[in-house]
Design goal:
Elements lengths: L2 H33 L22 H16 L4 E3 L9 E5 L7 E12 L3 E6 L9 E6 L2 E6 L5 E6 L1 H14 L10 H5 L2 H13 L3
Antiparallel strand pairs: 1-2, 2-3, 3-6, 4-5, 6-7
The structure holds nickel (II) ion.
Length: 204
């Protein structure tokens, strides 16, 4: 066998190895996406305080990809890990429909809130079909980490400030309907009961 052929074989082997590695990665990511699904109002994980993320590894990257896929599927602009029954301080935000950015936010902490509050119609992938006006501070500053484990500071106003507060609430077991006046929440009793049942349906 001449050297040309040997190097060709080496090249092919290397190519197959890389392809295998790639296929495994794709499979792992598909599995990560398949195993995660939304949970709904009434699910116990939505009422727990989430645990801080400690490992900034490839699993976390896969998780972020799975969460972005879920948001895309349901037209969501923000998703917190407890919404897929994971008690982790992990949030994905996709504001590309507002000509803004995609963000992955780990272990976020709101360190400043503006005194000025304002109303905004909120909805939640875990409470489908219900939209109500919630008053919240118009600006916030959030300290967090990115996927690489680097510290980040986010100064947010407008829609980003809104989504951040909504999602960080999820990490503390709080849902947007908790902010509504009792008499408004009562108007949704029937709907909320129906939504609770979706947790059982989701198992099949
Ligand atoms: Ni939500």
């Amino acid at each position: 066998m001449d050297t040309f052929k040997i190097s060709q074989i080496h090249f092919l082997r290397k190519f197959i190895e890389i392809k295998d590695e790639y296929n495994q990665l794709v499979k792992k990511r598909q599995e990560a996406i398949m195993k995660h699904h939304l949970v709904y109002y009434g699910h116990e994980k939505l009422r727990q305080k989430a645990d801080p993320v400690t490992e900034f590894d490839s699993d976390l990257v896969s998780l972020s990809e799975a969460m972005f896929k879920i948001m895309k599927k349901y037209n969501g602009i923000g998703l917190a890990a407890p919404q897929i029954a994971l008690s982790k301080k992990f949030v994905t935000i996709d504001l590309t429909s507002y000509d803004k950015e995609k963000l992955v936010i780990v272990n976020p902490e709101i360190v400043w809130r503006s005194e000025k509050k304002g109303p905004y119609d909120e909805g939640c992938l875990s409470i489908p079909g219900i939209f109500e006006t919630v008053d919240r501070p118009l600006e916030v500053v959030v300290n967090a980490y990115n996927l690489d484990g680097e510290q980040i500071e986010i100064k947010a106003d407008d829609i980003l400030a809104r989504v951040l507060q909504h999602e960080i609430d999820h990490l503390n077991g709080i849902m947007f309907v908790d902010h509504l006046e009792e008499y408004i929440r009562k108007e949704y009793t029937k709907e909320l009961k129906k939504i609770k049942k979706m947790n059982k349906q989701a198992l099949f």
